Amino acid sequence: MKKAFIFDLDGVLVSTDRYHYAAWKSIADEEGIYFDETINNRLRGVGRRESLKIILERAPRTYGEEEERALAEKKNERYRASLENLTPADRLAGVSETLEALRRTGALLAVGSSSKNARYILGKIGYGDYFDAVADGNDIVNGKPDPEVFLKAAALLHLSPCDCYVVEDAKTGIDAAVRGGFCAVGIHDAAGYDRADHAIKAFSDLLGL
Ligand code: B16
Ligand code: MG
User: Fold this and answer.
1) Distance CA 129, CA 101 (A)
2) 43 alpha carbon to ligand 1 midpoint, in Å?
3) What is the pLDDT of residue 109?
4) DSSP state, 145?
5) Is-contact 138 116, C-beta < 8 A?
6) Catalytic site residue 146?
7) pLDDT value of residue 169
8) Which helix (H) or strand (E) is 117 found in, with range?
9) Is the entire prediction scored with pTM above 0.70?
């Protein structure tokens, strides 16, 4: 087992997919842009402004920089409002027990998320002070598939990428991990992605790495 685990947040420790979808869907509907769950899957692990650009691919007109900024902000207000009711019960299956067991092995635990709301979400699910390091969308210039967020987390842990697993549910996150020299572990949507070094079915399978 390696010295540390760097976890993606959304889709790995907690799932706020349906809230992202509802917020983007309301914006798309208001703008008269077609948007469905299949397109939403392309937003997994992708930053907010990049997500908006994917949605605007189907827009009947072009949007200026300021309009895009306002739409992203409106989406975030709606998304943030829906996060208010998150509680520790929203941690995904097996997360609480597995993190505790990993910690008992002496492994360091960190988060590497594209989300600018990561610290807020961690607080809501009772992990405000839990991790040894947190790197998120506020700390980086380049989003996944650039490895910046994971490199930042590894630097905060004072470890090299080769000493760390990155656990990801998004293909773009696996690409980022591989590019950064991490050991990439795919779960859920990313479990079938052949670029991952390991694929796990359940979160608790991390204990068997
Ligand atoms: P925000 P992760 C990602 O989180 C989500 O998967 C993605 O759907 C979202 O667009 C992105 O964060 C940005 O989120 O609007 O809150 O900054 O999977 O990298 O933890
Ligand atoms: Mg994710």
Assistant:
1) 17
2) 8
3) 98
4) T
5) yes
6) no
7) 97
8) none
9) yes
